[in-house]
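call fold(seq) -> C-alpha cells
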Amino acid sequence: MKVDIYCDESRLEFLESKDDGFMVIGSLWLKREERDELKEKIKALKKKHNFTVEIKWTKISYKMLSFYKELIDIFVEYEKFHFFKAIVVNTAKINFEYHANNSDIGFYKFYYQVLVHKMNTASYQNEYYVYVDDKTNKVYKPLPLLKQVLNNAIYSGEVKLIEPRNSFENIFIQYVDVLIGLVSYGYNTTAMKGAKKELYEYATKRLELSLNKPTQRDKKPFNIFEIKLDRGF
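ret:
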C-alpha cells in the first residue's frame, strides 16, 4: 500500500531560542488511492465559501470561521481513510547535550519520532512518501539522512522518499497547519479569545477530545503524543 504523509511544525522558535513553550510537529497520513477524494472535498469547500487564499492557522478570522469549522467537519466525517498524529515537545525540558548542543539535530530527531512509531504499527508492507513544508532551510539538508534512519528502524515497509513541498501549493500541508495550530493553541495559549478560541472549542467538541493534553497511545483518528524528555532527549 502506498501511504502519503504530509508534515508541518508549529512554534519552532521555542526550540531555536530555548524559551519555555511547546513545539508541535504534525503529520497527516493518507492512503494514496483515497487521497484525491479528500482533496476534492476540500476544493469543493473552498469553492462553496469563495476561499481563494492559503488555508492557514494564523489567518483564521470570524469572516472565514464557518469555512474552518467545516474543514474540521471533513476530518471527523471522513476519518475512515486518514489519520493525524502530532508530537508535542516541551522545549524548556530539552537537554541539548543529547543533540550535540544543536537545535537542528534535535529538530530532526523529533521529526523521526512523529513518523517511526506509526510506521511500526503497520500491518502491511507499506511504501511511505513523506512531504514536509519547505518554509525553512532546516528542511533540506538532513532529509536523506532522516529517510535512511527511518528505513533502518521500521520493522516492515519502506520510506521511498522524503521531500520538501511549498505549502502554498500543497493543500494537505495547509490542512496540517490548521490541525497542529489547534494543538499548539491548546498547549501554549492561556488567554484564548476571538475566532481561534471559537474554532478551538468547536474542534474539541467535534473530535470529542481535549487538544491540550496527550491522547491514549492508540487513539484514532486524531492522536497527540507528548514526548517524555527524561529518556535521552
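The chain has seven helices and six strands.
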